[in-house]
Design a protein that fits this description.
Layout lengths: L1 H12 L4 H4 L2 E5 L5 E6 L5 E9 L12 H7 L10 H10 L3 E6 L3 E9 L3 H13 L5 H18 L3 H14 L12 H6 L2 H11 L5 E7 L3 H12 L20 E6 L4 E9 L8 H12 L6 H9 L6 E6 L6 E9 L3 H18 L3 H14 L7 H14 L5 H10 L3 H11 L6 E6 L9
Parallel strand pairs: 2-6, 7-11
Antiparallel strand pairs: 1-2, 3-5, 3-6, 4-5, 8-10, 8-11, 9-10
């Protein structure tokens, strides 16, 4: 019965409208924990999204990958429950949890039915505050992590990602591999996992979004039940990263028929007054679909690639403009030259009035599609808080897009896009590409 109800709820979630996400309230628990809430009583369930700043950036140099391994073990037993007991308890409550570690944060996702909310909340609190880190589970999850690392060593996209991080961030922790290495992951002990847990999950770096069948009055005590048992403060976080604008071409030799090309340069963060003009310019250059300049030039006109992209990465700790494609080794140099030329054209001439109107129509029309379920909306609430957007942002975002003028876009494009600042990573046996690093 519970499984049937849970499945039905998941289907209904697709119908949750943008309307729900525009009515956000801030809730502060009796213990001082803040969350943004969208109340949605028509569906008997709750979605909780939480983010703890820090993540893999806090890993010691000789234990890279420990935050990710620790996060992967949070639902592998907690308190007096081993992994099988914990799995049985969550199944009985028809609840689901997800834990992951990125380079700058630990993320927590939970969905639960209203009728089982009390049991589900207790299980989530147990996973966060009393993980078992059972030796058998550690070895199983470690084996999965090592298998993933071996697979990444043969994946040109993964190789390109690591090479780009190393080229962009220099001595900052972001330059290191979030997943660790075969050597560091193999060396992680249970004490290392306990230490990672202690420095990763603290209330002073917590952001929470909640969507579903709960009132603000009910949510406050629930927040304290879930997160109140965590330490009040954690260790100092790394300083913000600085994306290198020195440029340069890095070639990683690799036996593959298709060269993987990645590019990046310094970008613009959420909250910058020029963000929306920059967003429109980036969308014209390399946004989704077949209408972007890069797609038209490299795919439709020249047939050099199946797909090419460019866009803004607006996280405050390392904003960047990024792009990439895959092409035959023989055409890598030609494709890179064309990408650079389009980058330069954006800086020199900007966009046209027709491109502005078409892109506004796309961006404003696509925005409501992001709000396609309680979990997605809870995640957006967390992202809004982390980015510093006001609580009424969903109601005002499309107006901000519509207010952008052609003069603003072209001024920001000239300021921001810099082909000479592009850091380029090519993985393969590219022809016509000369490494400079």
């Amino acid at each position: 019965m519970l499984r049937s109800l849970f499945a039905m709820v998941l289907v209904v979630l697709a119908a949750v409208p943008l309307r729900a996400a525009t009515d956000i309230v801030e809730v502060v628990s009796p213990g001082g924990i803040t969350a943004w809430l969208v109340e949605e009583p028509s569906i008997p369930m709750l979605a909780i999204e939480a983010r703890f700043e820090g993540g893999a950036a806090l890993d010691p140099d000789d234990r890279l990958g420990v935050a990710r391994l620790m996060a992967g073990l949070l639902d592998e037993g907690a308190g007096d429950l081993d992994n099988l007991g914990f799995a049985a308890a969550t199944q009985a409550a028809a609840t689901s949890f997800g834990f992951s570690a990125g380079r700058s944060a630990i993320s927590v996702s939970a969905t639960m039915l209203t009728e089982n909310r009390a049991e589900s909340v207790d299980l989530l609190a147990l996973a966060l505050t009393q993980p078992a880190f059972d030796p058998v589970a550690i070895e199983r999850v470690r084996a999965q992590a090592l298998s993933g690392l071996r697979a990444d060593a043969t994946d040109p996209n993964a190789i390109a990602g690591r090479a780009m991080d190393a080229a962009l961030y220099g001595d900052h922790p972001f330059a290191r591999p979030t997943d660790g290495t075969l050597e560091t992951v193999a060396a992680i002990t249970r004490d290392d996992l306990l230490a990672a847990h202690g420095r990763s999950l603290a209330r002073d770096r917590l952001t929470v979004g909640v969507v579903g069948d709960i009132t603000p009055e009910e949510l406050g005590p629930l927040l304290d039940r879930i997160f109140g048992g965590l330490p009040a403060t954690g260790p100092e976080l790394p300083p913000p990263a600085k994306v290198s604008g020195a440029g340069g071409v890095h070639v990683v030799p690799f036996d593959t028929p298709q060269a993987v090309i990645r590019v990046a340069q310094p970008g613009i963060a959420d909250g910058d007054p020029d963000l929306f003009p920059a967003l429109i310019a980036a969308e014209v250059l390399g946004g989704g679909g077949f209408r972007s300049r890069l797609t038209q030039e490299l795919r439709e006109e020249r047939g050099l690639t199946y797909g090419v992209f460019a866009g803004l990465r607006t996280d405050a700790d390392a904003p960047a403009i990024v792009g990439g494609l895959a092409t035959a080794n023989a055409t890598a140099g030609q494709a890179l030259d064309l990408l650079r030329a389009e980058w330069a054209r954006m800086a020199e001439t900007g966009i046209t009035a027709q491109e502005l109107e078409e892109t506004k129509r796309y961006l404003t029309g696509a925005y409501p599609l992001r709000f396609d379920g309680n979990g997605r909306i809870a995640s957006i609430l967390v992202g809004m808080q982390v980015s510093g957007w006001p609580i009424d942002y969903p109601q005002t975002r499309n107006d901000r897009v519509e207010a952008v003028t052609l003069e603003q876009v072209n001024r920001v494009a000239a300021r921001l896009f810099a082909p000479e600042a592009l850091t380029v990573v090519v993985v393969g046996q590219p022809e016509g590409v000369t490494p400079t690093q």
